[in-house]
């Protein structure tokens, strides 16, 4: 076995990388925390008032856009 030591080192390195990858790489919690506001018509979660205005203009053009103070 000419590559015995090299194989073992590669396996150990891969195992360390796998251990580092485990746990907590998901951003689902941070994303959900960022989407605090909801469209009053369709209840789509959005990040801020500016995006609500864009959403309302695009998806609900006949509806009136509520003032920003209603979302705080």
UniProtKB/TrEMBL annotation:
Residues 1-19 have a biased composition (Basic and acidic residues). GO terms for cellular component: cytoplasm; nucleus. Residues 1-29 form the Small EDRK-rich factor-like N-terminal domain. PANTHER family: GEO09665P1-RELATED, ZINC FINGER PROTEIN 706. It holds the Pfam family SERF-like_N. Keywords: Cytoplasm, Nucleus. Coiled coil: none annotated. InterPro entries: MBS1/2-like, SERF-like_N, ZNF706/At2g23090_sf. Residues 1-27 are annotated as: Disordered. The keyword Lipoprotein does not apply. The keyword Nucleus applies. This is Small EDRK-rich factor-like N-terminal domain-containing protein. It is found in: Cytoplasm; Nucleus. It comes from Rhizophagus irregularis (strain DAOM 197198w) (Glomus intraradices).
């Amino acid at each position: 076995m000419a590559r015995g030591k090299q194989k073992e080192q590669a396996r150990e390195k891969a195992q360390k990388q796998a251990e580092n990858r485990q746990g907590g790489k998901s951003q689902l919690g941070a994303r959900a925390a960022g989407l605090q506001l909801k469209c009053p018509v369709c209840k789509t979660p959005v990040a801020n008032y500016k995006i609500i205005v864009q959403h309302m203009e695009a998806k609900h053009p006949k509806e009136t856009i509520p003032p920003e103070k209603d979302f705080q």
